[in-house]
Amino acid sequence: MIVLALTMTMGAPFATAFDLESDQPIRVNADNARLDEGQGIATYTGSVEMSQGDANLMADKVVLHRDENGVSRIEATGTPARYRQPAMEGQGETDARALTITWSASDNRVTFRREAVIEQGGNLFRGDVIHYDSAERVVTAEGSADQGDGSGRVEMVIQPRGNSGSNPDNNPNGQDTDGSSQGQ
């Protein structure tokens, strides 16, 4: 197993996910819903679409856990589950996917498990497990056991500061990311 930690000061890899402490409502649409008020669990299945403000989650199944303070945990599974958030605070749009995505309010952590990929503004994080600690602003990525094909490794691509990918529309002065001029 390969473990790599990266602090957010090297380039903000992605924004926090759903804000479980926000006053903004979380909206859920699904084919089926089961609410267990005694346990504080709501289970949604079948083409689940969940949103809070501009943040969106699409999954096969979503389980919301509530406590006396509101939603405390969100577990999403899919093939893959997909989370999207528009650009904010100088960060590019976030597009994240994994077979399992979990948000936990108590430890300020978002965890992407199995086939995890997070893309934002040209930055890419890929691994078996990716944790984002929103309080400490630290990303930790873990690879899976190597099966002889190199797939067990963590992959990260971090764009230089001020560069949000190689899109010429994002580069008004006509220079490539290495500083050379683009051809005419």
Structure overview:
The chain has 184 residues and is mainly β. It has one domain (3-163): Lipopolysaccharide (LPS) transport protein A like domain (lipopolysaccharide transport protein A fold, Sandwich), CATH 2.60.450.10. It has no helices and 11 strands. It has strands spanning 3-7, 27-29, 32-36, 41-52, 55-67, 70-85, 94-104, 109-120, 123-133, 138-142, 155-157. Strands 1, 2, 3, 4, 5, 6, 7, 8, 9, 10 and 11 form an 11-stranded antiparallel beta sheet that branches.
TL;DR?
With about 180 residues, the chain is mainly β. It is built from no helices and 11 strands.
Low-confidence parts, pLDDT < 50 over ≥5 residues? 1-15, 165-184
CATH superfamily: Lipopolysaccharide (LPS) transport protein A like domain
On the 0-100 scale, what is the average pLDDT? 77
Strand content: over 45%
Assembly level: single chain
Tell me the count of domains: 1
Number of strands: 11
The CATH architecture comes to Sandwich
Number of helices: 0
Global shape: globular
SSE string, helices as H and strands as E: EEEEEEEEEEE
Helix content: under 10%
| Largest β-sheet summary | 11 strands, antiparallel
N/C terminus separation: 46 Å
Text of the CATH class:
Mainly Beta
Q: Structural class given helices, strands, pairing?
A: mainly beta
Radius of gyration: 18 Å
